[in-house]
């Protein structure tokens, strides 16, 4: 596959979306993002690395971090995780409390905020430092020792975090948190506020393209487990637009309100696209367009 | 009206419900209540006072306190309150988050937990000491200077209060709290944990039977405002069973999970019945039966 | 009480709402109503009759008919009705399917469309002619032998009645209809499409003010049963605005999208006000204002 | 791939589930199915055909027919279909009205009952005979001229079809049906009541494995469109358990309450497994187990 040509075409298509969508503005630190920035990178299973545009510029990874906290919680604790969180699409906006109430405090899947709080809680129990575990994994896989949480973003999330606090207390009221609410929220904000580039993220996510094998050749999880993480990414990874993302792009992927989307071509490569303007579902307009272009031109969707 | 005879008949009917229902057990302090206790009192607008059974024994008034926090918030702040809380029946269990989410953080009415948190918040803004204001009102009207918050109950509520914390944070996320979440919760727990007897409550509630006039003859609120509080009590005062309570008893009233119900015969009297065993909607089996008997025998429902 | 003076004051207040609200337009026959029409009538328990404005002009009574179908179903069949329909406020727009699904085909109360279909079904079983029973009762009580269903309105309701058909089939799917869906819908549309005036309705509704006694002195239902119907009217009679109607007006009442509201002053009188413009909850702006004025000036709300 | 060996292993695993789950019993015709029957078949893109157990025994395909009505509606009418039906997972039981009400009569996806009614309606508009179009397609692709609707099942569905009638009327009330409710329901019941075998279904479904090319080599739809149908199958094809099916099996697939599941290995084969006992989500216990075994042993899931 000629990834260089594909990246150029994808970037051109993304560029044509300029002006569409809105930068997330629920906290000042995110609202300050450059709305016209765009970057994209590919890391193949063979260790090749390609990039275009602002592919080495760090951005707030936000919910993309949930892919890593899930993988690490499964790697450390195995299937016990699934007793506290489901793996069904939510069919509701990503921060909804409604479903949580109906379903007795068991969040629908690990990628809605409620589910990610449970995953963070379990990772905290397993490692003693949930956000540290995510950060260390990203540093090691990307080879970028400077990769870190942006403390301004984390503080801003906490300050504006009444809704996440509501979710956490609600889950706790159903007995589905092992750690104090404050601890879980702190680590949740800390891993969501990590700043990383497309380059960093494709390297860190390439273990899923290699069916569980890290960049150094060691295994993080079994082949079967990696395929299952990919399945959850496909059905639940892009908020309430997972069906549409599967329809248009056809790859497992995880998006964040910072504008990044990390997608997996199983057996081939990890791809990350980034542009801060979001559509109504909270996914980057430029990144969805770029990924759509890449799979349309290459014919390499999973379907 | 021969209140002595009515109280005896109501008490006999309540006695016949022995064994029905379950004592609230979500916190240990409530679970310790004597399940077979029963008391009932009447305070007429003319200052007569009648009682039967355990009518002078204090119990945890819990949500009955919401009648007083509402009345005081209206007396101090007037109709501005209704910008932050509605006055429609909720049609859902009393601690539901679902409706709150659909309706953008404006609780349906002042008597579901969410609404009572908003009322407590506004009373805190108006008085600087929301729970103190409720306590002082109860002391003054009842003439019982020893009436107080039970600190064990308040602490226990706080300890098991993840759901109320979730509600408060959720309301705050919609910008509908003026004070910090912790402050609002503390005062909410403090006024719910007041211990008072049927005697205390009928005296303190008799201002609604006198259309707004306190026991000392001074006016707390206008006649029209008192009638409106009675209307809210009737449509929203007994959790998700307000329709059934209106159908069976036919009086405005407010119940609490401590087993008390304070009801109003407008222009005539305040009545309070207490028995710790609750039905599925959270209302005292004995108290509902006693009040039903009283209105059936006397024909004095409002309808 | 000087009803003549009260009616004049109420009419003046209603007049001042001219231009507010919108005439129901979901079927052409209703959309053709004169938006500025207004009438109001009072029938006392002693047989006095007062009217103002268009009080003798017939209009489509629509959901006001549900008061009569409920009363007749109870009079003929007693409390068995309550096995198939509840008596709690719905807390949702009047034609909602959501609650019906959650609660297994038992409608919340007899006045939401779903509940009125169940009531019509039971009245059909009891009388063999549900809409005829309502019509005959109205004719006899009002002394108006010409009072009848408007066939154009009934046909138009049926033609645009997919939502009511959905409700009926849904209730049937839960086994909560005794008669065929088509029969129930036909009779439902037929009694809702009755045309009657304020004069007709206060006479027909005065049995509730007389605690169950018809205009000819015979008893339709017991005193206790009449009071209970009044209780259901208060908590559920005005769609999703029952709490607000109790708060503002403070009387049991039933409204219809034709713009009529029939209200009860227990022990005193029946009052009906009519104006076709509706507020967002589906209640007549002019009629609510007129009734609010009447109870405010007279101080005769039930609270 | 040694399909013969895989089928034997899958059948053995399915056999071990004997006694688990319950045969659908909402209509007598389905309840009569042999609970211990099991069959499985594979049709490769190269025209090879394999089968095991009762793979040539016809069963009621039920919702599996929705795959074909969707494909034909898209083949005849293109993307216009997506204006009337979404492609997001529903996150609710398959026959729910709740989401339909919230989302204004646009069903979430083509595979919940509501969505399948809209698809049937559009196919009726496009072909003049929606159920005939599905039947003819299945006959031609399977080469089985005797394949037909079971009239007893269709009549039984109609007789017990109040809930589907409710859905159809509700969609019609939102203006989202082009044909009369009765017509749509008749054709819906007729294509769901088709009896076909695993053999018939893998042949008829193999066009999706061949990216849109029929068994005779002609093209039904574009490659891109076929991949998109596969995407919708994966995210929405197995009721409220789509996430779990993707997680365990990892293939696009469509299940029916008759116990059949038709799944696609893109570029390789169509697979169908059948066993009448259903799990709580309405999917065949034996078929899910058999497909899980097949992808686990072969490692050929799409992820």
UniProtKB/TrEMBL annotation, chains A, B, C, D:
Q: Which domain of life is it from?
A: Bacteria
Which family would the database say this protein is a member of? Belongs to the glutaminase family.
> Which top-level enzyme class is recorded in the Swiss-Prot or TrEMBL entry?
hydrolase
- EC number, UniProt record: 3.5.1.2
Q: This protein is called what?
A: Glutaminase
Q: Reaction(s) catalyzed by this protein?
A: L-glutamine + H2O = L-glutamate + NH4(+)
One of its GO biological process terms is:
L-glutamine catabolic process
């Amino acid at each position: 596959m000629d990834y260089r040509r594909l990246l150029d075409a994808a970037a051109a298509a993304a560029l044509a979306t300029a002006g569409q969508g809105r930068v997330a503005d629920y906290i000042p630190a995110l609202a300050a993002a450059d709305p016209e920035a765009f970057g994209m990178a590919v890391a193949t299973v063979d260790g090749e690395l390609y990039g275009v545009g602002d592919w080495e510029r760090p951005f707030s990874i936000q919910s993309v971090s949930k892919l890593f906290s899930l993988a690490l919680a499964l790697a450390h604790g195995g299937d016990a995780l699934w007793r506290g969180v489901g793996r069904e699409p939510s069919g509701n906006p990503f921060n909804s409390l409604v479903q949580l109430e109906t379903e007795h405090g068991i969040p629908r899947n690990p990628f809605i905020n409620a589910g990610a709080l449970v995953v963070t809680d379990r990772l905290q129990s397993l490692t003693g430092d949930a956000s540290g575990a995510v950060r260390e994994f990203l540093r090691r896989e990307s080879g970028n020792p400077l990769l870190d949480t942006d403390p301004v973003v984390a503080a801003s999330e906490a300050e504006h975090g009444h809704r996440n606090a509501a979710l956490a207390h609600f889950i706790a009221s159903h007995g589905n948190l092992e750690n104090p609410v404050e601890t879980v929220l702190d680590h949740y904000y800390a891993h969501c506020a990590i700043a990383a580039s497309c380059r960093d993220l494709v390297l860190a996510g390439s273990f899923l393209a290699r069916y569980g094998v890290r960049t150094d050749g060691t295994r993080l999880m079994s082949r079967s487990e990696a395929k299952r993480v990919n399945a959850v990414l496909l059905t639940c990874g892009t908020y309430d637009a997972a069906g549409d993302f599967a329809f248009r792009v056809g790859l497992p992927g995880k998006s964040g309100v910072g504008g990044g989307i990390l997608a997996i071509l199983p057996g081939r490569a990890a791809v990350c696209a980034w542009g801060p303007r979001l559509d109504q579902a909270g996914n980057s307009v430029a990144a969805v367009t770029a990924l759509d272009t890449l799979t349309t031109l290459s014919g390499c969707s999973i379907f």
